[in-house]
Amino acid sequence: MNGLEEILHQAQKILTCPQCGRSFEISEIQLKGMWGNTLIFQTSCQNNHPPVNSVFVVSYKKSLGKSYPLGQKPALQPITTDDVLDGAEVIDAFDGDFEKLWRKS
To bridge 71 with a disulfide, which of 2, 11, 67, 80 should be the other Cys (CB 3.0-4.6 Å)? Predict the structure, then answer.
């Protein structure tokens, strides 16, 4: 299974029709667009409910300076206490300005 198929199957596990609550079949989920690591899916309920667009942000694992695209799995490293503390510092320092944060990228 390639990376996009894996994402599609993950989307199927969590997406439901907002009208009737049923889970979507794979054939009811279509990739409508992709921008960087953001994918846009459109779901169409077989019960003729209005289509719904969903946005998925996919992260790429970086290890030893190398980026791994969708579908490639590097050896995973366990999360350390330092990782958690570093994450807490970043969250504490965040001022809520997402536009400023995204401009840094």
Answer: 2
Q: Are 73 and 60 in contact (CB under 8 A)?
A: no
Locate 79 and state its tokens: 């999360």
Range of the domain at 34: 3-104
Please tell me the total count of domains within the chain.
Answer: 1
The secondary structure of the chain in percent helix, strand, coil, rounded to multiples of 5, reads 35, 25, 45
pTM exceeding the 0.90 threshold for the entire prediction: no
What would the pLDDT profile of 12-21 be if each residue is shown by its tens digit? 898 899 999 9
CA-based max dimension of the chain? 50
